[in-house]
Amino acid sequence: MNETILQTRQLGKRYGKRWAVKNLNLEVRCSDVFGFLGPNGAGKSTTIRMILSLVKPTEGATEIFGHSLKSHRSEALRRVGGIVEKPDFYQYLSAYKNLEIVGALSGDVKRKRIFEVLDLVGLSDRATDRVKTYSHGMKQRLGIAQALISDPELVILDEPTNGLDPQGMKEVRDLIVHLSHDQKKTIVLSSHLLNEIEMVANRMAIIHNGELVVQGDVNTLLDEGEKYVILHAEPPQKVLSVLKRQNKILKNFSEKEGRFEVIMDFAGIPELNKALVDAGVQVRALIPRRSLEDLFLSMTERAT
Amino acid sequence: MIRLVYYELIKLFLKKRTYIGFGIVLLIVPLVEVAMKLEGGRFLTIAMRGLSQDFLFFGNLFNGWFVAYQIMNSLWFHIPLLISFVAGDQLAGEATAGTYRLILIRPVSRTRIFIAKYITTLIYTVVFVFFLAGLSIGLAVILLGRGDLIVILRDILILPEAEVAWRFMIAYLLAAWTMITIASLSFFFSSFVENAIGPIVATMGVLIVFSVISVIPVELFEILKRFLFTKYLNMWQKMFQDPIPWDEMKIGILFMGTWTLAFVLGAWAVFVRKDILS
Question: What is the pLDDT of residues A185-244, one digit of tens each?
């Protein structure tokens, strides 16, 4: 199950003198939901364009299912579906016709399969409507449908929630989880939204200024990040005096406008809570934070 | 490949833009032919003013064939323009619409997609030229009847009615051949850019510049002229000469074919290497 199905080696793309992507080594394993994270302009879309053969790399190589993208493009892409940036379609054609065209390029896709994917993304009742009548969210869902049309094993989704409202974002995330858990697909999900990756990915890579900053298991990477607790409590003087005495369980703390940030292991939270309550402090909230956001920010700041 | 061409044809013929050319021809040709019928041969009388004093003409020379022949002159500029509307959009249109991202990530090679698109362009070009042929000849013959064809170029030639139909047929085949060269030029420009206006303007620009060079009597241009594809753009006209210069036409067919091949290979080389950034 841990077989590597997508691998880039020293992948790089240069436009003029500027390297959009450089020395990129990615490894996506079977059944991964692989988060590909980076701020806007980090090189995510260029990387995905290279992986999907839209852009020729300046250097390096890509292997998909053991096939070199350069020498065996068709074999490499046969089991791959993807969506690159915003979904664009033949606006004057229906969703069904668009999928029929894409299906013809992907192999022998039957009418039944077209309706299956339309149904999966909730568009089967609008199948015969022209795409130009679709909302942005519907186009985004149709984008996912076209990525799935050939029932690929590897699905590459580039910023699939871009421009969607919160409900639309949730639907796409749920769909990704469904594809991963129920349909056992391997998913590469590129995003600049940290919480999106945190919610669905098991492995991830962070890219910044075209270079890989970190890659690995999401939980492992999270453990590497600093853990802290946000504490809302009153009165501040009493809180301060308790915190100063708890040097066994906490490493450091800071206070800003009555809001305390306590750097500590989460295991010590009950003990801290007890000490505060015993001292007559009114504890309103103790919020453990182990966010990928901190890691992301620290990584990208370090790389700058 | 047949399936790829089929879907390219679906994409092409379900697009409104494809029918602009057909619409214009459908509007202009009947307009011109009805106007010529109403004028009642005044156009021909003016053209033959000097000759009618020295020669006697029998029969109906102002007939459908004559009018259809006059309409063929639109093959100089108007029809190439209408063809480049579609041919120039074939590759650039996908870039403009962003649909390259939809089709070029599939396991089908770019070369196969390119060939399917080019075959579709050829089909459109041939269909369009023969649509012009069918409409202009058919309507003209219905409106103005048949007869001998009078051809007025440097001199006057009267072709007997029995020969006219097959001459027109071969003339339109040659016209289709030359329009394929124009379509290929537009297709070539289309491979470079991400906006369909560019290829149309560039095609017409080349056509104008080459045509201007072809008529300016400068020695340097004389050498250049031999290599310009516009030299044989009027190849179809030779079908209305007597005797028909078959050898010259064979050279013209090969010459235009060579240019077509060069444009197609150039477009292919650009297309398969192109980074899709749109």
Answer: 899 999 887 777 878 888 999 898 889 988 888 888 777 766 788 888 888 888 888 888
| CA distance linking residue A273 with residue A276, whole number of Å | 5
- How many domains does chain B fold into? 1
Q: Dihedral (C-alpha) A73, A188, B105, A167: value to the nearest 10 degrees?
A: 170
Residue B278 resides in a domain: no
Chain A residues within 8 angstroms (CB to CB) of chain B: 49, 52-56, 73-75, 77-78, 80, 82, 84-93, 97-98, 100-102, 104-107, 146
Domain ranges of chain A: 4-217, 225-303
Helices (H), A121-268: 136-148, 166-181, 194-200, 218-224, 236-245
Show the domain range for B146: 2-273
What gap in Å lies between CA A201 and CA A273, rounded to an integer? 32
- Residue window 76-105, chain B: list those with CB within 8 Å of chain A: 97-105
In a mutagenesis test of the A interface, which of B7, B100, B106 is the best target, namely the one with the most A β-carbons within 10 Å?
Answer: B106
A88–B97: do the CB atoms touch at under 8 Å?
yes
DSSP B121-183: HHHHHHHHHHHHHHHHHHHHHHHH---PEEEESSSEEEE-HHHHHHHHHHHHHHHHHHHHHHH
- B115/A contact by beta carbon, under 8 A: no
Q: The whole model's pTM is what?
A: 0.82
Per the structure block, which two tokens stand in for B92? 């650039």
Q: Judge whether B168 lies within some domain.
A: yes
| CATH class of domain segment(s) A4-217 | alpha beta
Residue B108: which of A55, A92, A105 has the nearest Cβ?
A105
On whether residue B266 sits in a domain, the answer given is yes
The four Cα atoms A122, A80, A41, A62 give a dihedral, to 10 degrees, of 170
For residue B227, give both structure tokens. 């290599």
- CATH class held by domain A225-303: alpha beta
pLDDT in tens, B74-121: 767 788 888 988 998 989 989 888 899 989 999 989 999 999 999 999
